[in-house]
């Protein structure tokens, strides 16, 4: 083989095994998800493919409450995560000095506690006899019998916490690449601190904010663990429905339809959001 | 100048000083509080690993004990669950790191036609909710009559880890000096020798970081595993099953152990990278 020929083929040889794996176990399953969502039947009699669009109609009419609730919870959690993450990422990027990497590690470290155990810890923290509820009762934010567990507050708290690194890291990366001389320039041109933040720093970090909010919102909207452990059935999200339909009720077609709708919903939200923010620099 | 104005001057100065002080420290205070917030659940998990709960649930503090740490596997099923988790995490991180590193190499050093398509294919799994990935894989296995179990969990974990490996290794390869490889080739090294003696040592920190990340993601994964586990029980699945009937403090002990190992690995890699950077590699 000539060197030129080898150079031409080399990338494909390197790509082949990994890409094949992704096609086989990520792309092909999406096809089967679509196929399953148009089947009818049950575990006993088997499932047959017959273009059963009514699965989708039923999914929407029966579970639109959970759909909207998922979007609402995930949306609120994303905003809260942004409010916590932006100042933190800003502080690490501009004040972290030589300890930047250590602080980043500190941000990621809590997420090496198994997800479920972490969420169970929130169950302890927000428990009726716990310090948070005690404090909130003392300052009369909560009534004497008020509680946090089994409310939407607890579920949103859990979601906010559990996806925080996905918000902090992209914002940090966008701020870290930022050339501080631009701020000096703004300062020389008599911009106030506030003004130069709003007109220079913030716009420069928008790609990070964009990526961070999406990377938080997307897993949050499909989550079911927080609602299951910190909430009750009246806080259940669409993930809880999909999970129980797939694994407990074996209503595969309806569950697949819901899964597909979830993906479509996310896609629509992402596209609208990208339009609004006017940035398409997703993968950086 | 009147006496009043003279008295007001230092006040103005101190007010301005307070402004600078606040600006400088409010942010630091906020960041410190955020970091504390991040670590509160960790502290709770670790503290409750020393709890001796009165009932079946480990939610309220009762009394201090070392027993859980002395007998971490005293709960039936917990040891095999942990072993399966470690086995899957090791295998999947190994495979995913190999496959992902090759993709990262192809993406950073060759121009080819389907490049943006490949980038998209790497990016999309990271932005797909786990429940969609987990359920779609299950429909594949159901439709093809493949029984779910250890192998299907492994397949799934390799799949979702590949993207993270590619992104991590790519970040490291971005600052890579191709001239070093060319120099080795000019000195008569074969491509394979060049890769082993020049390329691999240079990208090693990135590859190791990717491997550690893949290991951590795999051992922590619940949702995708839950859909494709069949009768196999990994550690997170064990916790899930336990959470409904009882939460033995041993769960916290093993959670803490995994935490220490994962964070320890990251710190060692970080220190090693810093050393190398200082030596100018």
Question: How would you describe this protein?
Answer:
The complex is a heterodimer of chains A (284) and B (281). In chain A, β1 (39-42) and β2 form a beta hairpin. With 284 residues, chain A is an all-alpha fold. Residues 280-284 of chain A have low confidence and may be disordered. Chain A is globular. Helices cover 73% and strands 3% of the residues of chain A. Chain B is mainly alpha-helical. Chain B has a single domain (74-278), classed as MetI-like (MetI-like fold, Orthogonal Bundle). Chain B is globular, with a radius of gyration of 26 Å. The chains are: A mainly alpha (284), B mainly alpha (281).
Blueprint (SSEs and pairs):
The complex is a heterodimer of chains A (284) and B (281).
Chain A: H1 3-37, E1 39-42, E2 46-49, H2 54-95, H3 100-108, H4 115-125, H5 131-138, H6 152-162, H7 164-176, H8 181-188, H9 193-221, H10 225-230, H11 238-247, H12 252-277
Antiparallel strand pairs in A: 1-2
Chain B: H1 3-48, H2 67-70, H3 78-109, H4 115-126, H5 130-143, H6 150-173, H7 178-186, H8 191-220, H9 223-228, H10 235-245, H11 250-278
Helix pairs in contact in B: 1-11, 3-6, 3-8, 3-10, 4-6, 6-8, 7-8, 8-11
**Gross geometry of chain B:** globular
Radius of gyration of chain A: 23 Å
Unreliable parts of chain B: none
Order of helices and strands of chain A: HEEHHHHHHHHHHH
Reported for the largest beta sheet of chain B, the result is:
none
What is the number of independent domains of chain B?
Answer: 1
In what range is the share of β-strand residues of chain A? under 5%
Keywords:
heterodimer; A: 284 residues; mainly alpha; MetI-like fold; 2 domains; two-stranded antiparallel sheet; disordered C terminus; B: 281 residues; 77% helix
Briefly say what this structure is.
The complex is a heterodimer of chains A (284) and B (281). Chain A is mainly alpha-helical and 284 residues long. Chain A is built from 12 helices and 2 strands, in the order H-E-E-H-H-H-H-H-H-H-H-H-H-H.
